[in-house]
Amino acid sequence: MQQGTGFLTPRQRRLAWLGFLLAAVQAPVAAKLVSDSSWLFSLVVALMVATVILADDTMRRQPVNASSD
Question: Membrane-spanning regions, if any (predicted)?
Fold first, then answer.
């Protein structure tokens, strides 16, 4: 049984992980340094990127439909 491919290339996947980590680290730092709630934007971006990574993971784990004639 073969696994499917996701919609992200390996390079895009690495960049998505890097973006997720940077946004996830930046949010609490900004919350500490900034008095307004603009740090929530970083949190929302991190959650959106995490959703894309999870969707790509789900597509990769689905088996490829084998054509049996």
Answer: 41-59
